[in-house]
# Entry
Amino acid sequence: MMSGRDGEFRFNRRQFGLATSAAGLALSMPGYLRPAFAAGEDSAAVIAGKVSGLIIHNAKLGVMETPLTLLRQHKHTPKEILYSRFHFPHEGEAAWYDTIKAPDFPDWTITIDGLVARPRTVKAADLAGMEQVKRVSVLQCAGNGRAFYAAKQKVAGGQWHNGGMGNIEWEGVPFRPFLEAQKLLVSSGAKWITAHGWDHPATPEGSSFAKSYHIDDPALDNAILALKMNGEPIPAAHGGPVRLIIPGYYGNMNVKQINTILFEAEQSPSVYQSMGYRMPLVPVEPGKFGANDYTLTNSVPTYGHKIKSAIFSPLPEDKPGAGAVEITGVAFNDGRGPITRVEVSSDGGKTWTDAEIEAPESPWAWYHWKAKGTLAKGENTLISRATDSLGRSQPLDGLVWWNPRGYEWNGADHVKVTV
Ligand SMILES: Nc1nc2c(c(=O)[nH]1)N[C@H]1C(S)=C(S)[C@@H](COP(=O)(O)O)O[C@H]1N2
Ligand SMILES: [Mo]
# Structure
């Protein structure tokens, strides 16, 4: 997709489209505008190798969520059940990533260009010979929990509950040392690093999937060019052959099928950076701030995971009896400070108890926790709320962060079980 190296127009429109008008957004962000999903669609038929019974949000784009009854069974979320999210239809030449098999592209390359004196193209095959490190990290869609915002006002897009996440062991080449070893001679004017994936919109005026990170972002110190997921080559559906993994960062920041890295003065004009996947700087009200009102100054990209917890047991499907109950679940954040407390209530918030927290595998992984509660006859509301060493915790009412694209839900988790 590169059309040469000189001047401003190195990238053709297809690779590097600008589409900031509402019409452009409609063309390039079909995930937001299509009706939720066709009933009766089988996840195993949408992405080959997925189990049946995943919750499909958009079959055409391969968007699906994991029921918690499956998610809670595994320490590391297997590829067969992990949620998936793409932005362009899986048709024609894009059909190759509709499978959990690892792709076989011996000639895959990553081009590094932009404000560097020595642009480079690196063979993905060469990455395998470099130092590898492991990073266990939660992968979570920024839209995970979007459905809960409907209690204030429904937000367009996939109505994700808590299953748009997984806990994964990634393995690959440390990102910064890799870039340094390329001896790129980065210009002092470079302030942003932009990653592009292979996928691209059907029409040239659409934006490709690009994400930008500030060049000094400390989260990049832990980033890797991942070649493996849970000990195996990364499945096509999850970003193989090479995926940028930034531990602790929301899913969209973890670019799948990475093939281009740019050093630039500005962040990418792709709508996925400039309009989508952003949070308003201050809380906004429905009707007062719209899905297309985001600017680079009134909002920030969805970078690190807001602290969050999820109750895994009991779920309504478990049909628990009255009396003593063990409540279990997970918590996680962006890894900047450990999670120090998970408070749990089994009576709708009247009384609280501190959960016992297991040490996590890494700063970015799930923390497992358990607490004792009591269930009465009738309806019981279970609540969990995590806090970390930086004093960050979940709002009891997550609606305070309502936003027109429904991102970063992190309200205290509420589960209703009827005895
Ligand atoms: N190239 C590319 N990378 C991408 C995306 C995409 O559409 N294309 N989607 C992003 C989003 S929004 C999420 S939530 C995660 C989903 O990762 P998964 O499909 O492996 O679960 O990938 C991110 N990386
Ligand atoms: Mo996402």
Observations:
- Helices lie at 13-16, 22-28, 30-33, 43-46, 68-71, 124-127, 175-181, 271-274.
